[in-house]
Amino acid sequence: MKKKICYIDMDGVLCAFYGAIQKHPEKDKYSKSTYDMMPGVFNNLDPMPGAIEAFELLFEMFDVYILSTPPWRNPDAWIHKKDWIEKYIPKAKRRLILSHHKNLAKGDYLIDDTFYRGQKDFEGEWLHFGSNKFPGWDSVIKYLVEKESHKDMPGFEGTMDDMNKALNYIV
Question: What is the pLDDT of residue 44?
Fold first, then answer.
């Protein structure tokens, strides 16, 4: 059986974008609508708490891609996103998709923290990261493990070892 497709956003989901803004020496020169224009801001992003471990688990369960929207007026960000993946999630190399229209992606799940790039019209299920239902990675993993672990999924077959790995992540 073919694995289901899961897309994961970067900024605010895998990467601590707002944490990088707070550390940026020129943050006072920018507003919320122009933070993504700060020179080098995408070059110094830390992973969100639990993001790398969650990615590893989801990579076993799904055919995972990173679906991110780069700022149009900051072309350096495009290469910084690729560099971040190579540094923190090397197995996701060549699994980065850059798009301003996330509704065009074909798949089963989209984990994203915003709603203004077509997320609401995504054909599968949009897990609104940072919302009351999915405030962080623990809730996302718990939901997906409970929803999918009983199904015949290659790489994550609901064995005790798989479930222990998921439960250890959640705890």
Answer: 83
Q: Is there a catalytic annotation at residue 108?
A: no
Active site residue 76: no
Query: Which residue's structure tokens are 């006072």?
Result: 28
Find the catalytic residue in 9, 36, 113, 162.
9
Strand, helix or coil for residue 169: helix
Q: Dump pLDDT digits (tens) for 75-134.
A: 899 999 999 999 999 999 999 999 999 999 999 999 999 988 879 989 999 999 999 999
pTM of the complete model: 0.86
Count CB neighbours of 153 within 10 A: 18
Cα 163 to Cα 171: distance, rounded to the nearest angstrom: 12
- Catalytic annotation, pick one of 11, 36, 112, 113: 11
Residue 151 DSSP symbol: S
Surface-to-core class of residue 111, CB atoms within 10 Å of its CB (0-12 exposed, 13-18 middle, 19+ buried): buried
